[in-house]
Design brief:
Elements: H1 27-33, E1 39-42, H2 47-50, E2 62-65, H3 76-80, E3 84-86, H4 93-108, H5 111-119, E4 135-139, H6 143-154, E5 158-162, E6 176-177, H7 182-188, E7 191-194, H8 208-213, E8 219-222, H9 231-239, E9 245-248, E10 268-270, H10 281-298
Helix pairs in contact: 4-6
Length: 315
């Protein structure tokens, strides 16, 4: 789903000897090939493709998505069905964690301003910061959040998390707050990293109250989902310098509209939802699918099964 025979997922042909492959990149094409199919690889995991033809999914038992987040794919009829959904959990962890560290280093070393002054041929000395000793709050303590926490810890940063339930210290986080303690965690941190999935429960979790709790010297990094942040409140805090900076890879509307004030704010780094897109990630997704397909065909439990009610893979 979301690919064609002329432009298939890389190396998908390795399964052609054990399963019959069909391709569809439109709802109309999907309607033709979906009846009788029991497995769907959602290469482009969007409900806009699948939901219009869902009644045709008369034999589907399992859908593998090509993404870690499943919010774009899930719709009520799928959630309420017995179809198993698995995601690409684990594929993007390291790349996203490195991206987060890159944005932190950019802020700490003043790289955006340095490049701006370079373009103007201005030689101006400024002291920079170190990451060692800084305090990091990671909201979302799944596999991506834990990898972010591990890398931050390796840089000598103190790391706390926010999860679905509060708990004590583990090998990555000094403490994990519950959702109702998000503002408290933000008040403590020098860097807040949002790695939350997009669910009904996380919508605008970073609202004006939480954003106002962030200290004005702190930076906010969002590699989770744009829906988890009240963008109007975030823009206001950045404009009023109640927040030192933000690195944003995801947004409430994507692509980010040309008239969004986020493009012009000098303390914002905008990236086009690319934090996890490393060279070779498509091949890695297909490899994961092939491994899960082998499990499916031999009756073994599938990896990365999504709790469709929660919208993510429970840890």
């Amino acid at each position: 789903m979301g690919a064609t025979a002329d432009a298939p997922p890389p190396r998908i042909d390795v399964v052609s000897e054990v399963v019959a492959l069909s391709f569809a990149d439109t709802s109309e094409a999907l309607a033709d090939v979906l009846p009788g199919a029991d497995v769907v690889l959602a290469w482009r995991p969007h409900s806009s493709l699948l939901r219009p033809v869902w009644p045709k999914a008369d034999a589907v038992k399992w859908i593998q998505t090509a993404s870690a987040g499943v919010d774009a794919l899930l719709f009520p009829e799928l959630v309420e069905s017995h179809v198993v959904v698995t995601n690409a959990r684990g594929i993007f962890d390291r790349a996203i964690a490195e991206f987060v560290l890159g944005t932190m280093l950019a802020f700490a070393k003043g790289l955006p301003g340095m490049l701006d002054r370079q373009a103007r041929r201005e030689w101006e000395h400024r002291d920079t910061e170190t990451l060692s000793g800084k305090r990091v709050l990671v909201a979302g303590v799944g596999s991506i959040g834990r990898e972010i926490g591990r890398l931050c810890g390796a840089f000598g940063m103190t790391v706390r998390g926010v999860g679905s339930t509060a708990r004590g210290k583990d090998d990555v986080f000094r403490i994990v707050y519950g959702p109702d303690e998000l503002a408290e965690g933000c008040r403590w941190a020098d860097y807040i990293v949002n790695a939350l999935p997009g669910t009904e429960g996380t919508k605008h979790l970073f609202d004006d109250k939480v954003i106002s709790a962030i200290q004005p010297t702190a930076r906010f990094v969002n590699i989770g989902r744009g829906s988890t942040v009240d963008e109007v409140a975030l823009v206001g805090a950045l404009r009023d310098e109640r927040l030192a900076g933000a690195a944003l890879d995801v947004f409430e509307r994507e692509p980010l509209p040309p008239d969004s004030p986020l493009w012009e704010l000098p303390n914002v780094i905008v990236s086009p939802h690319v934090a996890g897109d490393f060279a070779g990630f498509r091949e890695a997704i297909v490899e994961l699918f092939v491994q899960n397909l082998e499990r499916y065909l031999t009756g073994l439990p599938l990896e990365n099964v999504v709790d469709k009610q929660r919208g993510y893979v429970p840890s």
